[in-house]
Amino acid sequence: LKAGGAYVPLDPAYPGARLAHILTDAAPDIVLADAAGRAALGEAALAHRTVLDPNTLPKQADTNPSLPALTSCHLAYVIYTSGSTGIPKGVLVQHSSVVNHGIVVAQRLELSSRDRLLQFSSLSFDASVEEIFCTLCYGATLVLRTDAWLADAKQFWDFCEANRVSLVDLPTQFWAQLIQEKVAVANSVRAILIGGDTLSVSAQSAWLAGGHQARLLNTYGPTETTIIVTIYEIVGDSDHWRCIGRPIANTQIYLLDSYGQPVPLGAVGELYIGGAGVARGYLNRPELTAERFVHDPFSRDPNARMYKTGDLARYLPDGNLEFLGRNDHQVKIRGFRIELGEIEARLVQQPQVHEAVVLAMGEGQDKRLVAYVVAEPDEALAGTFRTHVAATLPEYMVPSAFVRLDALPLTPNGKLDRRALPAPDAQAFAHQAYEAPQGECETTLAEIWSELLGVEQVSRHDNFFALGGHSLLAVQMISRSRTALGISIPMPVLFEAPTLAVLAQRVSAQENVQDESFAVLLPIQPHGARPALFCVHPVTGLSWHYRGLVSHLEADQPIYGLQARGLDGGSLPAVTIEAMAIDYIQQIRRIQPCGPYYLLGWSFGGKVVHSMATQLEQQGERVALLAVLDATPDYVQWDNKPEINEDDFYHLFVRHAAGSLSEAGRYLWEKTRAVLQNNMQLVQRFSPRIYSGDMLFFRATMARDALTQPISPEVWQPYVMGNIEVYDIACQHYDMELPAPTAQIGCILRHKLNVLQAA
């Protein structure tokens, strides 16, 4: 090898056009490829290059190579990442950066020759450099995984135990899926590194609740630096679940405003990275390099540079950094950083497409790409565009849905109105001709697919991956299938038989589907392109009564109820109202990943939506509507009664019901009694925070008895900085679910929602 030669990893799973571009751009002298690799690259691309087969060992010298001209400033590797112009760009990383990173990680993990580290990442992902070179440089053992490790959490940790793996380095979302399955981490594993995506509060809570002995380190670092630049070890519960820690050794972090000046402590700024880990720049892209790799005015070295990340962050009081997202249209999905512009550039190359916009929708493992295209009507549009994009982009960059529009919606000043883009409907997915699922197994699998993939209708000939499925959703689907059907679907079987009917032929159902009436997120009216109205339950924990609002709101207004955990007999009730609010925020982000949010809560639920509003506000989200139905912020009225008996329950819930619901009273009491008692205890410990926005307050004007008077809106003033708009409803507190009060409330809500939509 020549002095200064660099390693350029290629993934044979990439489309041929992308591989050909990388070969042309990087211009390697030597290509390491087996028969499958040669087939993927093509003989034309390999012409005039030296091709070595890894299965054939060349003659080896009996002395170590001597390259005196090689220095730490020479390149170690070139790794390609998504490009906004439609062309992937190669990042140049030198040896000194890799050495600095390796020493830091080895010290934090206390790496020794006794360790065995799992090589999880693809070679085209820079985390593989961390796994391979940190391990080998310290004499540890590298354990290579296969696809069999991806089956489920139990099998993954069993494999770790069997192979005596002590350290694992996992994408954040894959780790989160393992933790959500509540399977004990292998005893052999002493430390887990995660990175590549934002850590969710639910995943962190699940980890802390599991009592795991292994260390957990959350890392952050863009490809333009050397793998990671900050580390945060999760050692206890924290409200700051987006914490990414402090910079590693020989690394500087700057939070700067739009003028390039440091922001005050606690203020949000764009994250710049300086120091040993900064890459040299982009291969053959001098203008882009100059734009993103800028002079470091804070360094004594006149040649020092810093990388402009486009990420937003702030310093917490303890000096750790909190990650707050992007300031442009670059996104991360399942650890892969994606320039949406690259996908848009590929779409407009399709002759039918006049304009295209791509968005990332959903949260965490449910995040997916949705393409909006201006094109002529075509029944096969979704399938055609998916095929076109998949021919030039890797799987993780292929949108799961394609929404056809006559024109892109614009704001009055002529800019794209992203809020007006509709949610994907059934036609937006690459369906086959619809044929209803047959038999219990197909029907149940179709329901699971529909929920996981966000598809209203699943044909028995539909393909799981063509509908937007990916490996993380596949793991979740397998777990749910085991619960619902009592079957275990190996991951390779799903890869081999991804269509519903064929997959069902490979498995058999063993038990009935569980009732979803007590789900935490209850779809009351899920259809419509508007932002949803999310309604939180009263003290009973149930949200069924909000169904009455549907006929009084616009036909395309989605409504979802939030119901207490514990109703299903499996999950545990919340321990505080604040924790309940955190959980419900995660639930609503599945439907609507970002604001503006519309929240409504009745009685006990009023406390919860107020807590949700304060937390969303702290996360930088906008709450457009906070509607509270006859609730107090503190411990008064019925809250003074610490216990509720069955008679009270009938008064609260069943007394207004008719027919089958009255007959089901005993069943509902048994389902809700523990949740109800828990909620009564929670209000005694609730201390509301201050919300800076406005509140829409509906007050019941009729007293229940001589001891309980109508609630004064003044009780909310210490906790609401904005305006409190009051509407009197002529009913008692527990009658607000009846038809007449519901109609009055619904009419006011419809007007408010329409005004907010038009703003």
In brief:
It is built from 21 helices and 29 strands.
Question: How are the secondary structure elements laid out?
Answer:
Elements lengths: L15 H11 L3 E3 L2 H7 L1 H4 L3 E3 L22 E7 L7 E6 H15 L6 E4 L7 H11 L3 E4 L8 H10 L4 E5 H9 L10 E5 L5 H10 L4 E6 L9 E4 L9 E5 L3 E6 L12 E7 L5 E2 L3 H7 E3 L9 E11 L5 E6 L3 E4 L2 E4 H8 L7 E7 L6 E7 L6 H10 L10 E5 L33 H15 L17 H15 L5 H6 L3 H6 L15 E5 L7 E4 L22 E4 L14 H15 L5 E6 L1 H15 L4 E7 L16 H9 L5 H4 L1 H20 L10 E6 L23 E6 L9 H20 L1
Helix pairs in contact: 4-5, 7-8, 12-13, 16-17
List keywords for this structure.
globular; 759 residues; 20% strand; Rossmann fold; GMP Synthetase, Chain A, domain 3; 7-stranded mixed sheet; 21 helices
CATH class of the largest domain: Alpha Beta
Largest sheet: 10 strands, mixed
Strand content: 15-25%
Poorly predicted regions are 509-515, 653-665
CATH architecture field of the largest domain: 3-Layer(aba) Sandwich
**Straight-line N-to-C gap:** 63 Å
Q: What is the third-level CATH name, the topology of the largest domain?
A: Rossmann fold
What structural class do the secondary elements suggest?
alpha/beta
The whole-angstrom Rg is 28 Å
Number of helices: 21
Number of strands: 29
Residues in helix, %: 25-40%
The CATH superfamily of the largest domain is Alpha/Beta hydrolase fold, catalytic domain
Overall pLDDT score: 82
Question: What's the number of structural domains?
Answer: 5
What spatial form do the alpha-carbon principal axes imply?
A: globular
